[in-house]
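Sample entry (63 residues):
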Amino acid sequence: MKLEPTSGVCSSCGEESSTNHYHGSDSEKMELCKPCYDVYLAKEMLQYWKDHIEEEKRRVGKL
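Predicted structure, serialized as tokens:
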């Protein structure tokens, strides 16, 4: 969940900048700047597709 931008400290890089609040995995609250959010999102999407591919392999019996 994304809320309105605020001025704060990024919980990833620790720099003070324009940040947004997000709910991460396990509904943890995160305050991230745009560059850190982009990295976080890329990692989440990569893991999603890895999991999806592994599940598809199991489903068709190729594992």
